[in-house]
Design a protein that fits this description.
This protein has 7 helices and 5 strands. The protein is mostly helical. A hairpin with a 4-residue loop joins β4 and β5. The longest helix is centred in the C-terminal third of the chain and has 44 residues.
Length: 242
């Protein structure tokens, strides 16, 4: 049994993965609480989320982007396939600083595509590969484990599975600069287009900072899980060769 198992407990999970999952849960709770808090702070100019997003697009010379309402809570996103910004019920016609921050962030993604921002083009290009890899990862690892008693080279499947899982980390690492850049574009446009006052901008900034932490947490979880797989199966492979 590998050294990182003690009395049936997987220490790699306790030390590496569990803290990152806790961070992820905390980040998710924080973005929801921050959004609720600043949803109560209404902008003095009474500009809605949809109007703010349109102003960001216009300020950056981006046209032909539709802005639609979508049901759900914080389901806001930009769809590059249809060139549509979809804003949730709590954002579309809300005049709160939180709603304006979120709406302008999604408009920032539309601007990234329009201006051919390299990281977002790269992220879009690897999505099919990462989706395919994430589906293959677990089956390949399980296949390698099942065949380990019959085929000496079976751990090749395990390592292929780990490599496929690693693609999710690559995706997360590329996502980080994309999200940070979209928020930076949003805040710059909010200030330059005079959408919010200086005091109100702080509310939008805190909302976007809380949202950014969820992407950091997701990256940490992927990294921890990858390291755990390498520790577990790397140790087993060495034991099998002895």
């Amino acid at each position: 049994m590998p050294y990182f198992y003690y009395y049936g407990f997987d220490m790699t999970y306790l030390i590496l993965v569990l803290p990152c999952f806790i961070l992820s849960i905390w980040a998710s709770a924080r973005v929801n609480s921050t959004f609720r808090r600043y949803s109560q702070q209404l902008s003095v100019r009474r500009i809605t989320g949809a109007q703010a997003a349109q102003r960001v697009l216009s300020a950056n010379g981006v046209g032909n982007v539709k802005i639609e309402r979508v049901s759900g809570n914080l389901t806001d996103h930009y769809d590059p396939k249809t060139n549509v910004i979809r804003l949730s019920d709590g954002v579309y016609d809300s005049t709160s600083t939180a709603a304006i921050g979120v709406a302008c962030h999604e408009a920032g993604h539309a601007v990234q595509y329009a201006q051919e921002y390299a990281p977002i083009k790269l992220r879009t290009a690897i999505i099919p590969v990462t989706n395919f890899g994430s589906k293959l990862a677990l089956p390949l690892i399980l296949l390698g484990i099942l065949l380990s008693g019959f085929i000496s080279s079976s751990y090749t499947f395990v390592y292929l599975g780990i490599a496929c899982f690693g693609l999710s980390l690559v995706f997360q690492l590329i996502t980080l600069p994309v999200e940070f850049n979209a928020s930076r574009r949003a805040l710059t446009s909010i200030q330059e287009s005079n959408i919010l006052t200086d005091e109100e901008i702080r509310g939008a900034k805190k909302t976007l900072s809380a949202a950014a932490l969820t992407y950091v947490a997701a990256t940490a979880v992927s990294l921890a899980q990858l390291l755990r797989l390498l520790l577990i199966f790397g140790g087993r492979s060495r034991n099998n060769r002895r």
